[in-house]
Write a structure and sequence with these properties.
heterodimer; A: about 220 residues; mainly alpha; 8 helices; B: about 180 residues
Chain lengths: ~220, ~180
C-alpha cells in the first residue's frame, strides 16, 4: 500500500526528531523522591502515631512500606497504560483499582486487631482532617504522575488517571496512617479510604485536563 | 506471527529523523492495520479512512514506541483506539457526517429563498403600479381576474392583459439581473 499524498504532506508538516520515552518503570522512578516525602511528611511534621510500639514494626512502618510499594507499582502500571498498544486488560485494570481498597481494608482490620483506639469525640472534625490531609498529601504525586502520563499518549485517559490517582492515594495514606493513631474501622474506612477515592478522582480529572487534545 | 526486525529498525529511523522511512513503514503497517480494521468494521471505505487516522496517531505517538518491543501490537493499539473513538462518536451523534459537503443546514435553503424573494421584490418595484397590482393580487393573493377587474373597475380581459404583460416584464427584469451577476 502506498501512502496517500495528502497524508504524507500532513505528516511532513508535523514531523520532527523525537526522543523515545524510557520504559514506564524507568519513568516511574521520578515518583520516588515525592513518594518518600509523602510518606515521611505527616509523621515527621506532626508525630509518629502514639501506638506505634504496640503495633510493632510490621504493622506500622512495614504496612506503610507495603502500601507505598503497591502504590508505586500502580503508578508504574498507569504509565504503561498511557502507551498505545500496552494497555491493560479489563481484569488487570479492575485488579489495579481494587488493590488499594483491599489493602487499606486489610491494614485497617489488622491494625484494629492489634491496637483498638476508638475515636470518641469530634468524629467529624478528625475525619475531615484525615480526609483532607491524605488527599492533599496525594496531590503532588498525582500531579507529577499526570504530567508523566500526558507526555506519553494515553488513549484511555480516565482509566490511566484513575490508576495513578489510586496509587498516589495509597502512598499518601501510607504516610497519614503513621500519624493518625485512631484504628476505629469506621474512621479509617471513611476518612482515610475516602482520601484515596478523592485522589483517584483528582487523577482522572487531571489526566483528562493534561492530555493532548489530539489524543 | 514473527515480526520483521526491519520494521522496528524503520520505526527507529523514523523517530530519529529520517522522514523517508514513512513510505516503507506505511506500506507494511497499513496493510496489517487494514486487515485488523476490516475484521471489525467490515466496510472497506471506513477501514481505509481508519487506517489513515490510525497512521496519523502512530505518527503523533511515535515517541512512545520502544524499539525493544514489536511494532505491530503498538500500531494495532492505535488503530483500535481510532476505531473505538469513531464508534463512540457515531453512537453519540448518529447524524454526524464525516463529509462537510454532505451537510445541508436548513439555514442555507432559507437564505437562498430570502435572497430570491428580495430579488423578486426589487424587480416588482420597477414595474408600473397597475401591472404590479394585477400580478400581486392574482399570483400572490389568489384573486381571480374577474375579482381584480371588479375592484379596479376595468374589464376582465384588461386585468388578464395587465397581469400577463407584468409577468413578462418581471421575467425580463429577473433575467437581466441574473445576466448582470
Amino acid at each position: 500500500m502506498q501512502i496517500p499524498l495528502e497524508l504524507r504532506a500532513r505528516l511532513h508538516d508535523e514531523y520532527g526528531i523525537v526522543r523515545p520515552l524510557p520504559s514506564p518503570w524507568m519513568r516511574a522512578l521520578w515518583i520516588v523522591p515525592l513518594a518518600v516525602i509523602t510518606v515521611a511528611a505527616a509523621p515527621v511534621a506532626f508525630d509518629v502515631r502514639a501506638d506505634a510500639s504496640r503495633l510493632g514494626w510490621m504493622l506500622g512502618w512495614g504496612a506503610s512500606l507495603l502500601q507505598v510499594s503497591i502504590g508505586f507499582a500502580i503508578i508504574g502500571a498507569s504509565l504503561r497504560e498511557s502507551i498505545p498498544g500496552r494497555g491493560w486488560s479489563r481484569g488487570a485494570i479492575a485488579l489495579w483499582l481494587t488493590l488499594p481498597i483491599a489493602l487499606v481494608i486489610l491494614v485497617t482490620l489488622a491494625s484494629w486487631e492489634s491496637s483498638r483506639i476508638l475515636l470518641q469525640r469530634g468524629w467529624w472534625v478528625v475525619a475531615g482532617v484525615c480526609f483532607a490531609g491524605s488527599a492533599a498529601s496525594a496531590l503532588p504525586v498525582v500531579a507529577l504522575a499526570s504530567v508523566l502520563t500526558a507526555r506519553a499518549y494515553p488513549t484511555r485517559p480516565a482509566i490511566t488517571g484513575a490508576m495513578l490517582g489510586a496509587g498516589a492515594g495509597l502512598m499518601a495514606d501510607a504516610g497519614w496512617r503513621m500519624f493518625c493513631h485512631f484504628t476505629e474501622p469506621s474512621h479509617v474506612l471513611s476518612a482515610h479510604l475516602g482520601g484515596v477515592v478523592l485522589s483517584t478522582v483528582m487523577g482522572v480529572l487531571l489526566t483528562l485536563t493534561l492530555r493532548s487534545p489530539r489524543t | 506471527m514473527a515480526e520483521d526486525p526491519r520494521l522496528r529498525e524503520l520505526m527507529r529511523e523514523y523517530q530519529q529523523g529520517r522522514f523517508e522511512a514513512v513510505d516503507e513503514l506505511y506500506a507494511v503497517l497499513a496493510a496489517a492495520l487494514r486487515r485488523y480494521l476490516l475484521s471489525h468494521v467490515r466496510d472497506a471505505a471506513v477501514a481505509d479512512d481508519l487506517v489513515q487516522e490510525a497512521f496519523l496517531q502512530i505518527h503523533r505517538a511515535r515517541h512512545t514506541y520502544d524499539s525493544s518491543l514489536p511494532l505491530l501490537p503498538w500500531g494495532v493499539g492505535s488503530a483500535r483506539h481510532r476505531r473505538r473513538r469513531v464508534r463512540r462518536t457515531k453512537s453519540r451523534r448518529p447524524w454526524a457526517t464525516d463529509d462537510v459537503a454532505e451537510l445541508q443546514p436548513p439555514v442555507r435553503a432559507e437564505a437562498a429563498s430570502y435572497a430570491e424573494r428580495l430579488e423578486v421584490r426589487e424587480a416588482l418595484a420597477q414595474i408600473g403600479a397597475p401591472r404590479r397590482q394585477a400580478i400581486v393580487e392574482h399570483h400572490v393573493l389568489g384573486f381571480s381576474f374577474k375579482e381584480i377587474a371588479a375592484k379596479a373597475g376595468i374589464a376582465e380581459s384588461a386585468a388578464k392583459l395587465r397581469s400577463s404583460r407584468g409577468m413578462a416584464q418581471l421575467r425580463e427584469l429577473l433575467r437581466s439581473r441574473k445576466a448582470a451577476k
